[in-house]
Amino acid sequence: MDDSRPALAIDIGGTKLAAALVEPAGRVLTRAQVPTPRDLDAEQLWRTLDALITDVLDRSGVALAADLAGCGCGCGGPMEWPAGVVSPLNIPAWRGFPLRDRLTDRLGGLPVRVHNDAICMVAAEHWRGAGRGHDNVLGMVVSTGVGGGLVLDGRLIKGASGNAGHIGHVVVDPDTGPLCGCGGRGCAEAIARGPALVTWAQAEGWRPDQKDATAKDLATDGALGHPVGLAAMRRAGRALGIAIASATSLCNLEVVSVGGGLSQAGPLLFDPLEEALRAHARLDFTRQVAVVPAALGQSAGLVGAAALIFAADRYWHGD
Amino acid sequence: MDDSRPALAIDIGGTKLAAALVEPAGRVLTRAQVPTPRDLDAEQLWRTLDALITDVLDRSGVALAADLAGCGCGCGGPMEWPAGVVSPLNIPAWRGFPLRDRLTDRLGGLPVRVHNDAICMVAAEHWRGAGRGHDNVLGMVVSTGVGGGLVLDGRLIKGASGNAGHIGHVVVDPDTGPLCGCGGRGCAEAIARGPALVTWAQAEGWRPDQKDATAKDLATDGALGHPVGLAAMRRAGRALGIAIASATSLCNLEVVSVGGGLSQAGPLLFDPLEEALRAHARLDFTRQVAVVPAALGQSAGLVGAAALIFAADRYWHGD
Question: B42 and B170: one domain?
Fold first, then answer.
C-alpha cells in the first residue's frame, strides 16, 4: 500500500464537469474540465464523463486503478445517499442515475464515494480552505441557489437524510418576503439567489427588457454605482446576514465561508451582510463568528471530493 | 467494578434544587428537592445543596462515593465548560462559583460532570424521552427564556464554546419584532418567552394592572376563551414554528421536543406552532420533522445529568 497515491476527484455541476488527480495533502494535480453538455441522454452524458476521466488518467500516467487511493465525486443534489443514485436539479438527463455504481465499474472496483456538491464544498473549506483549524464551520454557496454544508465539533453533519446544511431555507422574512421555490415564504434563498435578485431589480427598473441579464451584470452595475444594483446587493447581503446570525446562535459557529458566483461581488455583498449579522448576533458567543470568502474558489468541489477519500473519518459517514 | 451502580444526579435551577439517585437505565430512584433559596450568599447556597445531597445519599443507604458510578449535574448557564465554573443568570449568589470542583471535593474524588441545564434536558429526551431512537433531535425549553440543545448524527453538539442549541435566538421577525434581551431584534425568545407574552397581552388590555400576572395565567385565560390569551399563544406558537422550520432546514432534524412551563398550554400553543412550521418547512426532508411535547417533564434535568455519566460517549465531550 503506497500512502502517497493520489485520488481521482470528480465535480459534476450544471455548468461544468471537472476531474483531477488530487494529492493526499489536497493539492490538485492534472485537471480537465468541459462545459456540462446539454440535450444529451443519460448514456451520452456518462460517455462524456468517461472520456474526461480517461483524459485525466492518461495525461497523468495512471494506468491502473491500483495506482489510486480512491475516487471521490461531488454532484448536484438531490441524491440517494450513500448509494450515489443522483438526480441533479440542473442536469435533467440524469434522473435516478446510478453514478456511484457506474464509477465503481469504470474504475475496476476502486473505492468510490459520491456526495452532494455543497457538502464537498464545505469539506474542502474545512479541510484545506477558509475553515481550516476550526471545528464549527458553515460553508455556503451563493449562486443560482443558496446551498451549504455544516461541520460541527470537527465532523461533517449528515442529519436525518444527508441534508444538513440547507442554510438557503432558513427563514429571514416570513411576513413580507417573496415566495420560495420550496413552497415557503421568505427563505434566504428566495431573496438572495441570483435569479431572484435579477427579477427584483428588473421590477425596480434595472435593464427591464433584457431577458438574459444576470446577477453578475447586476453586481457589475452596482460596482459602477447603479442604485438598483447597489440596493439588490444590500438586499441579498441583509438576507444572508440574518440567516447566518440564526445559524450562529443555533450551532455556535466559528467560521462561515461564503463562495459561489455572487460572492464575487465582494464588499457590495459582504458589507451589508456584516451589518445585518452584527445587528442580530449579539450574544457573547455569537459575536465571535467570522464570515470569510471561500478560499478554494473553482477547486473547492475537487478538493472536497478528494477529502471524502483522504479524510473519510471527518467527511464520509457512509458505507 | 459494579456496573449496576447508580449515579448521583443534580439539577440546579432558578426555581428549585433537586438531587436523586438514577439507575444506569435512567430510572429515577430516591429523590429530594427544595425551592432555590433567595437572599443567601454563595456558601450558604452551597450548604443547602450539600444538605440535599446528604439527604439523598442517607435515605438510599449509599455510604461511600465508591457505591456511585459518578455525579452528573445540570445547572443554569452561562458557565465555563467543562471546568464547571457557573454563573447562573437566575441565581445571583453564584458568580464564578467552582461547582464542579466543590462537588468533586464533597464526593471524595468521584467523577463529576457539570453541564448546562438545557443540554441536560436534550440529553435526557434523546437518551430516554421523546427523542429516543432518533439521531437528530432539538430539545427546547419554553419558559422564562427559550433555550435548547442539539443532538445531531447521534451526538450532543457542543459548538465552538459549548453553546450550540440556542434556538431562542433564531431570528423570526427581523423588521417588526420586539427587541430581545440579547440586544438583537425579532429573536424567537423575544416574542415567545413567558414574560414577553405577558407584556404583550397587558398592552393589548389583558389584566393590565396585575403586576404578578404570569404566562400560566395567560394560557389559562386563553383556554377559557379570552381572545388576548388565545392571540398571545398564537403569537408564541407562530414564532416557535418559524424558528423550528429554520432549524429543521439547517440541521435536517427528525424530532423537536418542546418542554418548559409554556408547553403545558398544549394545543393552544402547539396548533399555531404546527401551522407556522408546516407553512415554512416545505422541502421533502423538512416535512418529515415531528414536534412533540417533552416526555420526561420534571425529571428531565435529573435524567439528563445522569446521562452525562451513563452515556458519556454521546453527551459528554469534555475532560
Answer: no
Q: What local confidence, expressed as pLDDT, does residue A2 receive?
A: 55
Is the peptide bond between B195 and the residue preceding it cis, with omega within 30 degrees of 0?
Answer: no
Using a CB-CB cut-off of 8 Å, the residues of chain B touching A283 are 163, 166, 169, 182
Residue B317 lies in a domain: no
Does the structure show a pLDDT above 90 at A317?
no
Tell me the CATH number at B145. Answer: 3.30.420.40
Q: What is the pLDDT of residue A40?
A: 94
What pLDDT score was predicted for residue A33?
95
Within this chain, do residues B24 and B64 fall inside the same structural domain, yes or no? yes
Query: Rounded distance, CA B158 to CA B161, Å?
Result: 7
β-strands A71-75, A97-98 pairing: unpaired
pLDDT band for position B307 (50/70/90)?
very high
What pLDDT was estimated at residue B112? 97
Q: What is the Cα–Cα distance from B85 to B168, expressed in whole angstroms?
A: 23
In a domain, B313, yes or no: no
Residue B195 and residue B138 share a domain: yes
A152/B164 touch (CB, cutoff 8 Å), yes or no: yes
Chain Cα centroid distance, residue B257: 11
Q: What is the pLDDT of residue B2?
A: 55
Positive or negative, the CA dihedral A277, A282, A283, A284 is: positive
Q: Are residues B146 and B260 in the same domain?
A: yes
Contact at CB, B281 and A184, closer than 8 angstroms: yes
| Yes or no, beta carbons of B254 and A288 under 8 Å apart | no
Q: What distance in Å separates the CA atoms of residue B119 and residue B75, rounded to the nearest whole number?
A: 9
The pTM assigned to this predicted structure is 0.92
Residue A123 lies in a domain: no
Q: State the sign of the Cα–Cα–Cα–Cα dihedral B304, B308, B314, B316.
A: positive
Alpha-carbon span B132 to B304, nearest angstrom: 13
pLDDT at A237: 98
The C-alpha R_g of chain A, in whole angstroms, comes to 20
Q: What ipTM was assigned to the predicted interfaces of this complex? A: 0.92
Please tell me whether residues A167 and A284 are part of one structural domain. yes
Neighbour-count burial for A233-242, b at 16+ CB within 10 Å, e otherwise: bbbbbbbbbb
* Same domain (yes/no): B247, B196: yes
- Report helix, strand or coil for A85: strand
**From the CA of B21, how many Å to the nearest CA of chain A?**
31
For A223-269, the pLDDT digits (tens) are 999 999 999 999 999 999 999 999 999 999 999 999 998 999 999 99
Residue A182 domain flag: yes
Q: How many separate domains does chain A show?
A: 2
Last residue of a domain, one of B116, B148, B183: B116
Interface with chain B: mutation pick from A171, A175, A185, highest number of B CBs within 10 Å: A171
Confidence of residue B41 (pLDDT cuts 50, 70, 90): very high
CA separation for the pair B316, B302 (Å, rounded): 15
Host domain of residue A112: 7-117+299-315
